[in-house]
Amino acid sequence: MKLKVKKMDWSSGNSLICILNTEDAARLNAHRGERILIRGIKNHKKITATLDESLYEIKEGEIGLNYEASKLLDAIDGMYCEIEPVAISEAVRYIKDKLDGKRLSKDQINKIVEGITNNNLSSIELTYFVAGSYIRGLSLQETSYLTEAMYKTGDVLKFDSELVVDKHCIGGVAGNRTTPIVVSIVAAAGLTIPKTSSRSITSPAGTADAMEVIFNVELKEDDIFRVVKKTGGCMIWGGALSLAPADDKIIRIEHPMAIDSFEQMVASVLAKKKSVSSDIVLIDIPVGRYAKIKSMKEGLRLAELFRGVSKRIGLRTEVIITKANGPIGRGIGPALEARDTLRIFENHPLAPADLKKKGIMLSGKLLELAGKANKGTGNKMAEEIMNSGMARDKFFEIARAQGLRIDSSSKVSLGQYKTFIRANKSGVVSLIRNDLIAYAARIAGAPKDKGAGIYLKALRGEKVEKNQILFELYAENMKKLNEATKYINQNNPYLIKQ
Amino acid sequence: MKLKVKKMDWSSGNSLICILNTEDAARLNAHRGERILIRGIKNHKKITATLDESLYEIKEGEIGLNYEASKLLDAIDGMYCEIEPVAISEAVRYIKDKLDGKRLSKDQINKIVEGITNNNLSSIELTYFVAGSYIRGLSLQETSYLTEAMYKTGDVLKFDSELVVDKHCIGGVAGNRTTPIVVSIVAAAGLTIPKTSSRSITSPAGTADAMEVIFNVELKEDDIFRVVKKTGGCMIWGGALSLAPADDKIIRIEHPMAIDSFEQMVASVLAKKKSVSSDIVLIDIPVGRYAKIKSMKEGLRLAELFRGVSKRIGLRTEVIITKANGPIGRGIGPALEARDTLRIFENHPLAPADLKKKGIMLSGKLLELAGKANKGTGNKMAEEIMNSGMARDKFFEIARAQGLRIDSSSKVSLGQYKTFIRANKSGVVSLIRNDLIAYAARIAGAPKDKGAGIYLKALRGEKVEKNQILFELYAENMKKLNEATKYINQNNPYLIKQ
To answer: In terms of pLDDT, which residue wins out, B452 or A58?
Structure first.
């Protein structure tokens, strides 16, 4: 059937959608949810779109295409297309197999991931895949296939270096901004570490949110190569690149249901690492009662999965499990975390010792893994690089190459609305609830409001007097400050024992 | 936040969707997939819509609403709304529980079904519910709660009758149009049988598709009451009514993945029966190698589920398992099945004996169940009603009350393109593949093309000579006739043994 394109100015955010007039759909014997092959008669481009139904607007002889479908077909209004219904896709059959509890082969997983990447699966079909994988589970082998398929269907950045190292923290701990420390020390030692980071989805700040207070993190591919060639490292937001694009689409489907299976997490992290051609990866799994991973048993299972998949896809991965008894560092929120980072490099009296120590420890591990330091001497080497100022110099070298914004902790601008939260009794701080601190910082406006967040004055184990300031709360408007204060009054993150 | 409505001329077919400008979304701290409460400032209407993202078109200060959202909010362009993000809905939490393998309570299932009915769940969330129920299963108790919730969230038709009877066949057998026979006999015996039927989704014809060749099947509620009051029965398409609307939405999500769990099937059928206030229901489960239900074991499990749920929701249900060794009747496709029906009432020499016999048998069962006939005498009574002409009179009385179109089998118009399929050898017809016959009839154009389909000349067990006509193939255009012929040549539905 030959139809004329009508571009529709809406986006599904994902799937390719076409709309037919009811009469044309009947003639084609095509129904809602079925797939339609659309071929541009002049430009010879081909796409497969899902048929939806519109209650009005499409005339006989026309085919409506949403933004994604128009774009992929290079469509212009009025252009003629040949259309025909297509049989159920292979990918859909394999998704059904997963729902039915079957193991999927490498080829079957490739077909599904290609369908996701090319938008040939509808969001309903993708949801079935996510739900099926979540409930039925993915074996180690399946998870490895998924990881490989995800990075192979995206761009892979290759650097002029024999060895590329990388680190990743699975998150769930407020503060904990170790990336700038590790990248600076490791690059200063002469290693190549092209670090991509994410923005926050559910936390008060992602590394990209915090670092862009200090320098530009949105770089094009050419600029990434330039920065890494010049400095040995980079600290960029990975979201603007097309690294493992299927992964981003899967995450988008998981989000509404707060689904986070270990298998999807491992595939997601390791696919991104392979996308920047990493050879050696250090994974940090923080474990704590109020963190993402709550028990050592879970932590060990996740570590084992990271190791097993890494082995199968040719990555040298070391996993370390760290304690997460509360926030790490003092600042929570983009600007406050940026200030902590700068203070560490400045050797400032208020630099958070715990964060600095953890960053050095992770760097030491990476130096040992990459053969820059002998076993047992990595920590010392990392410490020297930090204390000598080499790490600071490397940090600013990278920041300048990416586009420096501020060069001193004193120039970080915080939210102009501020309040102090005080101790309601004297005693010792026995616990700072990581989850409540993070949520309060989000209510205050982080990460969208860069200057919003929390600054911890009293740390765990410290003795405090009644009415002493426990932490400062920052916001960029009065309403959010009040809401966050109200939340804290009802959900006190500090436990003080007499 | 106060925003101005912009109506968007597209329909999701289901969910309420709103679009915000990126800046407004950031200010609201709302993300794609999250829920937004929208309140008309003047008209005080309230809806909850899912936030989607648009790549262009929505200006700051505006909120785009899709067709469904605009309709429910009674929105006009430029009208002001107060909007705020809402917390994750209870229904979503319970869906997550089902994914995690938990049993759901009555209240939890009610919340989910309300969310489906009111379009407060996105299609992604609904897919998670369908996938979770499919993989984790629903217990007998959960299936009963689901059934009740589905009919209680829709309209329930009440008739002036002490006893309402009904029948349902789970389908999967070509031909097999027993409804007009059963309704006519049972209503002629003085019982009330307001029968709703569906249109075909995957078969060559639903009862509604076939009967509308003879009479109008799309009745408004008032007309249904009038017809049933006058005649004791009706044969209508249920799809135009709002009976158990959540069920239709669930079916729409199941369709792309061809999911049909027994639990969803039972809930769907029995909810529709409760929606017309049925007291007594007869369920026909055809079992055969090429039918929907392939083994007696499966048939028995399904029967048990029908009985168990019926008991819990207060329905007197009898289930019978029938043999389905091939198509029942001779015609497959709307017009051809309508002709079989008329021929049975006309006592025509070509009336299909197997279909007539099965219709009488089912009627007899219902007469016994409703106390019109003593145990063991129902079949005889049904036969007498048929042979005396009372069933024919009742059939035309109902047809006239609904809007008669044709009154004789000779007036049924078939597809003008026709071909004969002949035996390639002599022997005995040992099998007619139900699935292949049905698929070939669909390729020929059924059910959209009313006159398309297949008419069986040789039946199972009959002796045929080489080149004798096995069946006739009808279509409304040459192309479809050729495609169906090609399909049959590659997938011969007749097995002939020498």
So the answer is: B452
User: What does the pLDDT read at residue B32?
Assistant: 74
Task: Enumerate the residues of chain A whose CB falls inside 8 A of the CB of residue B67.
Answer: 55
As its CATH architecture, domain A415-497 has Alpha-Beta Complex (3.90)
Which runs of consecutive H residues, i.e. helices, occur in A153-283?
179-188, 207-211, 221-231, 245-254, 262-275
Domain B2-86 falls in which CATH fold? Barwin-like endoglucanases (2.40.40)
CATH class label, B90-137? mainly alpha
> pTM here?
0.84
Instruction: Give CATH for domain A165-240+259-409.
Output: 3.40.1030.10
CB-facing half-sphere around the CA of A119: CA atoms within 13 A? 21
Length of chain B (residues):
498
- Does domain B414-497 fall under CATH 3.90.1170.30? My reply is yes
Distances (CA, A) of A472 to A200, A336, A444, A455, A477: 22, 11, 11, 5, 15
Confirm or reject contact between A23 and chain B (CB < 8 A).
no
Residues A433-455: pLDDT tens digits? 998 999 899 989 898 899 999 99
* Euclidean distance between CA atoms B324 and B438, whole angstroms: 14
pLDDT of B54 strictly over 70:
no
Q: What is the pLDDT of residue B13?
A: 59
A260 is catalytic: yes
| Domain positions in chain B | 2-86, 90-137, 165-409, 414-497
Whole-number pLDDT of residue A127: 95
State the count of interchain CB pairs (< 8 A) between A and B.
116
pLDDT digits (tens, 9 = 90+) for B227-258: 999 999 999 999 888 899 999 899 888 877 87
| Model confidence at A338: pLDDT above 90 | yes
ipTM of the complex: 0.82
CB contact under 8 A, B26 and A123: no
- Provide the pLDDT for residue B89: 75
Separation in Å, CA of A264 to nearest CA in chain B: 16
Nearest-by-Cβ selection for A8 from B10, B92, B134: B10
B29 touches chain A (CB under 8 A): yes
> What confidence category does residue A13 fall into, taking pLDDT thresholds of 50, 70 and 90?
low
Residue B455 β-bridge partners = B331, B472
- Spatial distance between the Cα atoms of B53 and B31, rounded to a whole number of angstroms: 9
If you classify domain B165-409 with CATH, what class do you get?
Answer: alpha beta
Q: Which of A128, A254, A264 to mutate to test the interface with B (most CBs of B within 10 A)?
A: A128
> Helix crossing, A296-313 with A262-275: angle to 10°?
40
Interface check for B411 against chain A (CB to CB < 8 A): the answer is no
